[in-house]
Write a structure and sequence with these properties.
Helices cover about 15% and strands about 40% of the residues. With about 150 residues, the chain is mostly beta strands. The protein has one domain (about 30-145). The strands form four sheets. A five-stranded antiparallel β-sheet has the order 12-11-8-1-13, with no helix packed on it. A four-stranded mixed β-sheet has the order 5-6-9-10, with no helix packed on it. Strands 2-3 form a two-stranded antiparallel sheet. The protein is extended.
């Protein structure tokens, strides 16, 4: 009986070690091109009788990168969600520039605190990019990057 328990323990340890071992596969690098960022707010989607593209409001966002942002739990309709909070204006980047995606933020909403205006919340995320031509690096709206296929 002791031999059977020892055998089971060794077998489970071996399975655990093999399943938790690092993979030797390489991480896929995503490349893309900068486009004019926009977000659709008040989007009418869902049931077919509610869909009306004329009521969708498209907002043009500034094509800028920010060196940092802050994660905060903020309420939307009494439910708290993880937000990426951007304070102030960023550094401008050229449209159509080739970029490499370095990282992606884990937020589903961005709170944009533009000086002189009231804070705005948008239903989109952020990506960390590096502009290939200039080496400029920072966080940008995820709708500003058209990924290569």
């Amino acid at each position: 009986m002791k031999f059977l328990i020892l055998k089971f323990y060794i077998f489970t340890t071996l399975i655990l070690l093999l399943s938790c071992a690092k993979s030797t596969s390489s991480i896929e690098v995503l490349n893309g091109q900068l486009i004019s960022p926009e977000v659709i707010v008040n989007q009418t989607k869902g049931s077919s009788y509610l869909q009306n593209a004329k009521m969708d409001k498209v907002i043009q966002l500034p094509l800028e990168v920010w060196s940092s942002f802050e994660y905060r739990m903020l309420a939307i309709y009494s439910t708290k969600h993880n937000h990426c909070v951007i304070d102030g204006r960023g550094d401008p980047v050229p449209i159509d520039a080739r970029v490499k995606v370095i990282d992606e933020a884990t937020c589903l909403y961005v709170r944009f605190n533009d000086p002189g205006e009231s804070p705005r919340t948008y239903p989109l995320g952020l990506m960390k990019i590096k502009v290939i031509d200039t080496g400029q690096e920072g966080w940008i709206w995820n709708t500003a990057v058209a990924l290569d296929k």
